[in-house]
Design goal:
Keywords: NAD, Oxidoreductase. With 416 residues, this protein is an alpha/beta fold. The protein has twelve helices and 16 strands. Helices cover 29% and strands 18% of the residues. Bound molecules: nicotinamide-adenine-dinucleotide and 3-phosphoglyceric acid.
């Protein structure tokens, strides 16, 4: 593998030069509070940045925080010679080129559970809203129209909720839905423990055919891209409702608009779209606008104060632990290492290309400098090796420089 090498930040992180942090997309203040308390210099941007703007803004930045709207392709890293880590202050990490960041030695951290409950609660509310056509009735009354009807309105008790993707959100939603008396079935590519009385179905087709409500909770991947198109929508029961609060790439919007217009589906709730605005000031157009019993929300499934506050703290904490001690636990694109710091030792962190002989070369450098290794932990994936090494003697600057000179080196830094 030939890894394009960006300039190596092998100089020790100095307490005198504060680390620069760039937080995009209105990341919660809780993150800034923690990062500032470390002495880091935090800059904020309200919306997302396009990749070329991001590339410019990453010059000299050590940590960047994004949410779901900021894409981080390899081209955005071209000036990111100081970038140590990326914080995705959300669940999804499909917006980051995880392979490119991995081979450039930049771990990406997310918050895998902090907004799970918020999404599950919103989807459960939408099930009731759709089956009672509450938004349409509400709009009519706002317009001075009194349309008291029961036709087409139903209880959710006894109805079947079909969950596609029975992970953190899907399984939590299933538990909440059973509390309302719903029957829960799910389809997942992995074998999952059924919670409560829920039942796994072997195929997507069976789930679509059996459900009164179908809700999607899968990540954006090649296998989920357009997984609900015209053929899948046609398999759903007449009058059933579709809910998508996962990713906009999962549902074919024109096909959905068509089955809503033809009244094959009774309603839909959509929170995510193939193209979403970068800021709250941008306009938005979708073919679903104006259709009856269609709830459209601006990607707010995880947008509660509770979730955002908790995500801010969780991801900021991961970034701080990585800066201070090199911990990569929870990074989505990196070998996992977490070693407690021992006072009096001198820690070096090294990311290198995963080829035979690197550890031998590094240990020869340490030995030539007459240093003693107190602790050494190496974890690898198919592209890179991540080494955390504590030395008894303070020769870490010389060791660091020598390791950075190896042609296998990707990133090397000293933390203590
Ligand atoms: N609307 C929002 O604001 C919001 C908030 C949080 C998360 N999300 C989205 O929801 C997604 C799910 O979140 P989660 O925390 O439950 O993730 P998760 O990883 O815990 O669960 C995802 C599940 O989908 C399954 N899956 C993957 N590919 C599949 C396929 N082709 N068919 C069927 N199942 C498949 C996985 O096996 C897993 O069980 C996230 O990836 C994110 O994109 C949206
Ligand atoms: O992946 C997620 O957690 C959700 O899509 C929420 O993303 P957001 O932080 O951009 O609202």
């Amino acid at each position: 593998m030939s890894t394009p090498r960006f300039p190596n930040p092998s100089a020790p992180i100095s307490n005198k030069v504060p680390l620069r942090v760039l937080l995009l997309e209105n990341i919660h203040k809780s993150a800034e509070v923690l990062l500032s308390a470390e002495g880091f210099q935090v800059e904020r941007v309200a919306g997302a940045l396009k990749p070329e703007e991001l590339a410019e803004r990453l010059k000299g930045v050590h940590l960047v925080g994004i949410r779901s709207k900021t894409t981080v392709p390899e081209s955005a890293l071209v000036h990111a010679e100081n970038l140590l880590a990326i914080g995705a202050f959300c669940i999804g990490t499909n917006q980051i080129d995880l392979t490119a960041t991995n081979i450039h030695g930049i771990p990406a951290f997310n918050a895998p559970f902090s907004n799970t409950r918020s999404v599950a609660e919103m989807v459960l509310a939408e099930v009731v809203v759709l089956t009672r056509q509450l938004f349409d009735r509400s709009r009519e009354v706002h317009l001075g129209q009194w349309r008291k009807v029961a036709t087409g309105s139903h209880e959710v008790r006894g109805k079947t909720l079909g969950i596609i993707g029975y992970g953190h959100i899907g399984s939590q939603l299933g538990v909440l839905a059973e509390a309302l008396g719903m029957r829960v079935i799910y389809y997942d590519v992995m074998t999952k423990l059924p919670l409560g009385n829920s039942r796994s179905v072997p195929t997507l087709g069976e789930l679509l055919a059996e459900s009164d409500f179908v809700t999607l909770h899968v990540p954006a991947t090649a296998s989920t891209n357009m997984m609900i198109g015209a053929a899948e929508l046609a398999r759903m029961k007449k009058g059933a409702c579709l809910i998508n609060a996962s990713r906009g790439t999962v549902v074919d919007i024109p096909a959905l608009a068509e089955v809503l217009r033809s009244k094959h589906l009774g309603g839909a709730a959509v929170d995510v779209y193939p193209e979403e605005p970068e800021t709250n000031s941008d306009g938005f157009i979708t073919q679903l606008q104006g259709l009856p019993n269609v709830v459209l929300t601006p990607h707010i499934g995880g947008s509660t104060e509770e979730a955002q506050e908790s995500i801010g703290r969780e991801v900021a904490t991961s970034l701080i632990k990585f800066v201070r001690g090199g911990a990569t636990t929870g990074a989505v694109n990196f070998p996992q290492v977490e070693v407690p710091l021992i006072p009096g030792t001198h820690r070096i962190l090294n990311v290198h290309r995963n080829i035979p002989g690197v550890l031998r070369d590094i240990n020869r450098i340490v030995s030539d400098l007459n240093a003693n290794i107190h602790a050494q932990v190496l974890s690898t994936d198919s592209n890179i090796g991540y080494l955390v090494m504590d030395l008894d003697q303070d020769v870490s600057a010389q060791v660091c420089d020598a390791i950075a000179g190896l042609n296998t080196d990707i990133k090397t830094r000293i933390v203590s």
